Amino acid sequence: MTQKEWAAYFEEKIPASLSCEWDHDGVQCLPEPDHEVKTVLTTLDVTERTVDYAIKNGVDLIISHHPLLFRPLYSLSDDSESGRILTLLMRYGIALLSYHTRADKIEGGVADLLASRLGLCDVQSIDTEEGPLVRVGTLPSYTRLGDYAESVREALSADGILLATDDANRPVRRVAVSGGEGGDFVSAARRAGADLFVSGRIGYHRMLEAASGGMAMIEAGHYFTEREVVYFFAKLAEERDPDAKIVLYAPKLLSLLASPS
């Protein structure tokens, strides 16, 4: 399959109609449309480190969650990281496709992967003002909040989590989840009757509402709540071309330091 054919395939599987109005995902760079793709790399972020790895490993196509060209690029030069990355992609003929909010919303994407990882059953989609970016489900049985919070940290292999509640001993069963930045969806989770809302980042002031709002909240980290999207992209790629080499690349770039040295 060529770069152009891969782009058409992913645009069909993860359509632009799912993107939020403010988003800029989809085809980011297609330097050699007729070039045959033999190696595909799936990743959460496109950094200079990512592209360097792709160049060294003969990657023909990168599929990312976060778009490289999210903000306007006014100059294709070394003055910005985006400019440097795009120049490298074009120089080495590497295509870049990015699927951001559409991958958050789509069935089997970020929100569903997070719900599955956290052990939720009977998962349903919750519509927000920006579309189905939240899932809600139930735990097999009522669980002490403090214990479940620890299981969330373990399930996501997170360095740490933030738990906002007025009582860590309270029982929880109905849980709402949203990967990445979920601060705008607290009200939607509460309307869905969730005992707990889990997201990557919710925000200090919204977390303060937990004590008075009757719903506990957990910040588990943007990276940790979204990184499994690389498997989603890889699965779609394998379904289309079983002969292609698929490389999963999701290095943790940010860490919590308990005692900086």
Short summary of the structure?
The chain is an alpha/beta fold and 261 residues long. It is built from 11 helices and 11 strands.
Structural features, described:
With 261 residues, the protein is an alpha/beta fold. The chain has two domains: 3-100 and 226-249, Udp-n-acetylmuramoylalanyl-d-glutamate--2,6- Diaminopimelate Ligase, Chain: A, domain 1 (3-Layer(aba) Sandwich), CATH 3.40.1390; 107-220, NIF3 (NGG1p interacting factor 3)-like (Udp-n-acetylmuramoylalanyl-d-glutamate--2,6- Diaminopimelate Ligase, Chain: A, domain 1, 3-Layer(aba) Sandwich), CATH 3.40.1390.30. Helix content is 34%, strand content 26%. It has helices at residues 3-13, 48-56, 81-91, 101-105, 110-117, 145-156, 186-191, 204-208, 210-213, 222-226, 229-240; strands at residues 26-29, 39-43, 61-64, 95-98, 121-128, 131-144, 162-164, 171-181, 196-201, 216-219, 245-249. It has a six-stranded mixed β-sheet with strand order 5-6-8-9-10-7. A five-stranded mixed β-sheet has the order 1-4-3-2-11. The longest helix is centred in the middle third of the chain and has 12 residues, at 145-156. It is elongated, with a radius of gyration of 19 Å. The chain starts with a helix and ends in a 12-residue tail after the last strand. The mean pLDDT is 93.
Key phrases:
261 residues; alpha/beta; Udp-n-acetylmuramoylalanyl-d-glutamate--2,6- Diaminopimelate Ligase, Chain: A, domain 1; 2 domains; five-stranded mixed beta sheet; 11 helices; elongated
